[in-house]
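WARN retry 2 of 3 for item q-0093 after timeout on previous attempt; input resubmitted unchanged.
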Amino acid sequence: MIELVYSDMEEEQGLLLLLANGFSDHMIARHLCVSLRTVERRVAKLHALLGAKTRFQLAVLALRGGLIKPGELDGPCPSSNQARKGSNRPLECVCNM
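OK item q-0093 returned
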């Protein structure tokens, strides 16, 4: 099992879950209520930590390492899934939930 050795482990697991669900950096930034640059920086950090060259490989390594579970791949919340699947509703910010 892979262990993230810094204080934001729970946040990074959430980020990995969003990546594994196919969210773009823009969608992740909006969902997490952070800047696009913050998402890009965090994704780059995860690539370096896990040794992944692509987003797909990052998701596979996260699954194999136990950082995310296969059952979680339907998405972290219904609003994000609807937005991702082409709904006319914008992806909602969940930072106040």
